[in-house]
Amino acid sequence: MRVTRSQAEQNRQTVIDVASRLFRERGFDGIGVKDLMEGAGLTQGGFYKQFASKDDLVAQASRRALESAANRWSTAAAASPEDPLGAVIDFYLSTGHREERMDGCPVVALGSDAARQGAEVKASFEAGIREYLEMLGSWVGEADGDAPGGKAMAVLSTMVGAVVLSRAVNDPDLAKAFLSAATAQVRKAVAA
């Protein structure tokens, strides 16, 4: 049975969505094409009709994951217009976000993997990171411009690092301590 163009595009978007979640859970090299396609409910045979290579899918799934993460930031901020940064800090540095392996921040889940990828994947991450910095810059009072401000960079670095470290340890008290310490430091830095 032949697949319509519309169905083929829908299948392609499904594969990108599934890959964006599975890559965050398992890493770029932690899952193969066959398992990705099975996760999307499709056969492996259709993969190369939809993507030039696994690297092509990695770049597109990374872009999708970063867009999704930025949307989550925007949603948290919109829910608390009187303190958008506080809402993002509370969401991002929470134990709930720490536990979201498939839907959590792609920079946390895949940052070190992305550093070993090609230019297209790095470009996806750079665009997503720049979007984070733009949002943070608007909330910490830094002017718009080509170069992100130091305060936004410090806040983002602290937040990402805290979630990475909290995921890297077995001790739940230590994991929570990383998140709590980062919350306190970010709030202090923003208030200064």
UniProtKB/TrEMBL annotation:
<dbReference type="GO" id="GO:0003677">
    <property type="term" value="F:DNA binding"/>
</dbReference>
<keyword id="KW-0805">Transcription regulation</keyword>
<keyword id="KW-0238">DNA-binding</keyword>
<feature type="DNA-binding region" description="H-T-H motif">
    <location>
        <begin position="32"/>
        <end position="51"/>
    </location>
</feature>
<dbReference type="InterPro" id="IPR009057">
    <property type="entry name" value="Homeodomain-like_sf"/>
</dbReference>
<dbReference type="Pfam" id="PF00440">
    <property type="entry name" value="TetR_N"/>
</dbReference>
<keyword id="KW-0804">Transcription</keyword>
<feature type="domain" description="HTH tetR-type">
    <location>
        <begin position="9"/>
        <end position="69"/>
    </location>
</feature>
<protein>
    <submittedName>
        <fullName>Transcriptional regulator</fullName>
    </submittedName>
</protein>
<dbReference type="InterPro" id="IPR036271">
    <property type="entry name" value="Tet_transcr_reg_TetR-rel_C_sf"/>
</dbReference>
<dbReference type="InterPro" id="IPR001647">
    <property type="entry name" value="HTH_TetR"/>
</dbReference>
